[in-house]
From TrEMBL:
Single GO BP term: proteolysis
UniProt GO MF annotations: cysteine-type peptidase activity
Positions of the NlpC/P60 domain: 126-243
Designated name of the protein: Cell wall-associated hydrolase, NlpC family
Lineage: Bacteria, Bacillati, Bacillota, Clostridia, Eubacteriales
Organism (species): Clostridium cavendishii DSM 21758
UniProt family annotation: Belongs to the peptidase C40 family.
Alphabetically ordered keywords of this record: Hydrolase, Protease, Thiol protease
SUPFAM superfamilies xref list: Cysteine proteinases
A Pfam match: NLPC_P60
Length: 243
């Protein structure tokens, strides 16, 4: 049995549960400091080869910005696993096959990967900013936890970093670093998807959220409210990440 374990902060390991005469032992078979286990959630399956071929783990990894890739893990020496990036896909949303990803010999001989893709119509005129806002909205109500980087809980900078990373933007998980990323803009230049900083000073802000429009931000507010939409308060600065 192989299990992916999410340590948070994009560190993931694979643990193998080994049965030796009904006695189980565990071994860390693979570890990666820059692999987000949540990017394969609901899109993992294993092969069931016969004969001398090794079974493999196959997963669709979501790199964000509609660029998923097929990954595989195969046992090498001992019980260690080796990961391989098998195939890159273009212009597919990996989240649209979540929970609908399977492997089988559907013709009785050839092992294939199959997925049911959610073809819900998306307005092609929906720009990057609105996509970011729409994606951020799905986390409304998630709890605020100091140091939380998602997806189950967030702090303010962890939330903004997580949302932007889904679209391929490398945004730091620290407010003091986010204030130096992107391009500085004025309050009057704000557009949905811009970063808004509150409290503290323009060089050392204490809070950050994503501009929602009409004077509001979507943000991981505090332990009481979690992720919410609310009015801008104690504005100190803004940055534009979207090019």
């Amino acid at each position: 049995i192989v299990m992916f374990y999410d340590y948070g902060n994009a560190k993931t390991s694979a643990w193998t549960l080994i049965n030796n005469n009904d006695t189980y032992s565990t071994k860390e078979s693979w570890v990666a400091p820059s692999f987000d286990a949540n990017a394969i959630t609901g899109r993992v399956a294993s092969t069931r080869y016969k004969g001398k071929q090794k079974d493999k783990i196959i997963a669709m990894y979501d790199y964000g910005n509609y660029k998923p890739a097929a990954m595989s893990w195969e046992q090498s020496s001992g019980n260690n696993l080796v990961a391989k990036r098998e195939l890159d896909f273009g212009s597919y949303d990996a989240t649209r096959i979540t929970g609908r990803f399977v492997i089988g010999k559907f013709d009785g001989s050839t092992t294939r990967v199959a997925a049911m893709y959610d073809g819900t119509y998306v307005n092609p005129n929906l720009d990057e900013r609105q996509k970011i806002i729409t994606y951020a909205e799905q986390f409304l109500g998630r709890p605020y936890v100091w140091g939380g980087h998602g997806p189950d809980s967030f702090d303010c900078a962890g939330f903004t970093a997580y949302v932007f990373s889904h679209f391929g933007y490398g945004v730091s998980g620290n407010t003091y670093e986010q204030i130096n990323q992107g391009t500085p803009i004025s309050f009057n230049e704000l557009q949905p998807g811009d970063l808004v900083f509150e409290r503290g000073t323009a060089s050392r802000p204490e809070h950050v959220g994503i501009y929602y429009g009409k004077g509001q931000i979507i943000h991981a507010a505090n332990p009481r409210d979690g992720v919410k939409i609310g009015p801008i308060s104690d504005y100190v600065a803004a940055r534009r990440i979207i090019k």
